[in-house]
């Protein structure tokens, strides 16, 4: 069962690495499917690969990644024990914001990853992943406030890069991260008592077919 899940995650990653569905593939060095445990209880979702991620094909390996590692250490979590991915799997040129069409094109990949991992806690890093679960939410107002739905907690956090740019946010970010273990424990108990996330429409949809221009 765990092996099946791991294989299915590998198959999604292989599809992502070969994806040509949006223009981001034209400028990427490597696609970045995500990394970590296929059976993680916690899934972190960032925005999109940056320079170093694009070179290495791994998420959060630049300065933001170093800070994310520090945050994980705060709560005694190893990177291998969680899964880390992004809303778009290829680097937007010059680290510009991902376009709505790019997020929409990449969504089925993220949906499949979420369905396979079935995490107890989803942590959003920054506004693009936050918008998936908290449409219209303002990070300055909702950061660190979990939304609990059907046995899964969604926790909006600042993006690590935003905290690096504005060190005043460090204590806030660290307080938000320090809540994760107790939220996770709460979710374990709720899940054991029987609440399950719904098979949400579209979350298990296959990736869109490549459209021919001719
Ligand atoms: N920022 C992100 O949002 N994701 C990464 O993988 C790296 C930096």
Any descriptors?
214 residues, alpha/beta, Uracil-DNA Glycosylase, subunit E, six-stranded mixed β-sheet, 10 helices, 6 strands, 44% helix, 12% strand, globular, disordered C terminus, binds uracil
Model description:
With 214 residues, the chain is α/β, with parallel strands linked by helices. The chain has one domain (2-192): Uracil-DNA Glycosylase, subunit E (3-Layer(aba) Sandwich), CATH 3.40.470. 44% of the residues lie in helices and 12% in strands. It has 10 helices and 6 strands; from the N terminus they run H-H-E-E-H-H-E-H-E-H-H-E-E-H-H-H. The chain has helices at residues 2-17, 24-27, 51-56, 63-74, 100-117, 127-133, 139-142, 160-165, 170-178, 180-192, and strands at residues 35-36, 42-46, 83-86, 121-125, 147-149, 152-157. It has a 6-stranded mixed β-sheet, with helices on both faces. It is globular. The N and C termini lie far apart (42 Å). Residues 200-214 have low confidence and may be disordered. The structure holds uracil. Uracil is lined by residues 46-50, 53, 59-60, 64, 86. The site of uracil has 10 residues, from loops.
Q: Sheet bearing the most strands, described?
A: 6 strands, mixed
Overall structural class, as computed from helix and strand content, comes to alpha/beta
What's the β-strand tally?
A: 6
Mean pLDDT: 92
How large is the count of helical segments? 10
CATH topology: Uracil-DNA Glycosylase, subunit E
Determine the CATH superfamily: Uracil-DNA glycosylase-like domain
Distance between the termini: 42 Å
How are the strands of the biggest sheet laid out side by side? 1-3-2-4-6-5
Q: What's the level 1 CATH class? A: Alpha Beta
- Morphology call: globular
CA-atom Rg in angstroms: 17 Å
Order of helices and strands: HHEEHHEHEHHEEHHH
Strand content: 5-15%
Q: Which ligands does the model contain, each kind named once?
A: uracil
Task: Report helical residue fraction.
Answer: 40-55%
